[in-house]
Structure to design on (290 residues):
């Protein structure tokens, strides 16, 4: 199985105006493409890019109830799936086009058809196309998508959930979430008194220190920050701490360093790490079995 230097998540809130339907941030798209170009030039070209949908797809998915689906396979559900996919693939095309314009050999890969769920739990992951693309020298660019679900006809497959699977399959050196804010705050960042959390210790049971309060926009069908944080926790625990997770701002000077070295200084972002105990130290020494 091909390994990856970095799995990079471009947040939907960073790439789009999330409160305005299908509204991309052109500057952020260019920043993301420039960053990946620099990673390739620095020898970290074996990376996988996954981006959120932001204001693309969420509104259509919410209107047609795609997240909860329906065993009756209604006309409205099918129409909603089609409209949502048209929207999310628009953004994927924009992201991929910017990367190619920057000289990055990027190929867009949509999960629909290759990934499946049952009751919103992944039963089939389309890894082959990603692996083949990496081995051929391309940068796979995936996105949150609708997928077929054996119990409720369809479901929403979040980019964050995709990243958790990719981390298990490709054992990247690091996973970096690039967002519209500096990192994880102890409460929603627009709340008075919100403070950036430089590091989060993840215990073996998945609990974290310090605790974090999260929130999501009403039309966000993928779980917002709560899912992103849980994804990060899962990656750290399932890899027994061998895969660090970093969260920082896309349009910042620290993003490149975070992706290349896994380093974040005080005030630059948030890093999740596994709290070491005698048991976890023993497991890490023997290698990650995942």
């Amino acid at each position: 199985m091909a390994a990856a230097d970095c799995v990079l998540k471009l947040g939907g809130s960073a790439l789009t105006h999330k409160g305005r339907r299908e509204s991309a941030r052109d500057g952020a798209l260019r920043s993301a493409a420039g960053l990946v170009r620099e990673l390739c030039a620095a020898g970290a070209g074996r990376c996988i890019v996954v981006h959120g949908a932001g204001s693309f797809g969420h509104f259509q998915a919410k209107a047609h109830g795609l997240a909860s689906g329906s065993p009756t396979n209604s006309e409205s559900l099918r129409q909603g799936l089609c409209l949502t996919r048209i929207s999310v693939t628009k953004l994927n095309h924009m992201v991929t086009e910017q990367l190619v314009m920057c000289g990055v050999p990027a190929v867009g890969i949509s999960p629909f058809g290759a990934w499946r769920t049952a009751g919103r739990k992944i039963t089939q992951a389309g890894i082959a196309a990603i692996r083949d693309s990496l081995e051929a020298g391309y940068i796979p660019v995936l996105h949150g998508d609708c997928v077929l679900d054996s119990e409720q006809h369809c479901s929403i497959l979040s980019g964050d959930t995709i990243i958790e699977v990719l981390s298990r399959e490709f054992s990247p050196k690091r996973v970096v979430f690039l967002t519209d804010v500096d990192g994880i705050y102890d409460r929603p960042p627009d709340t008075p008194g919100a403070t950036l959390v430089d590091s989060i210790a993840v215990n073996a049971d998945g609990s974290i220190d310090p605790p974090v309060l999260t929130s999501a926009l009403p039309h966000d069908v993928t779980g917002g920050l709560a899912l992103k944080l849980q994804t990060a926790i899962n990656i750290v625990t399932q890899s027994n701490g061998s895969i660090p997770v970093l969260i920082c701002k896309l349009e910042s000077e620290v993003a490149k360093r975070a992706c290349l070295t896994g380093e974040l200084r005080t005030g630059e972002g948030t890093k999740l790490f596994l709290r070491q105990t005698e048991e976890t130290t023993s497991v890490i020494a023997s290698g990650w079995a995942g």
Q: What stands out?
A: Residues 216-223, 280-290 have pLDDT under 50 and may be disordered. Residues 21 and 55 are 5 Å apart (CA to CA). The first helix runs from residue 12 to 15. The longest strand covers residues 174-179.
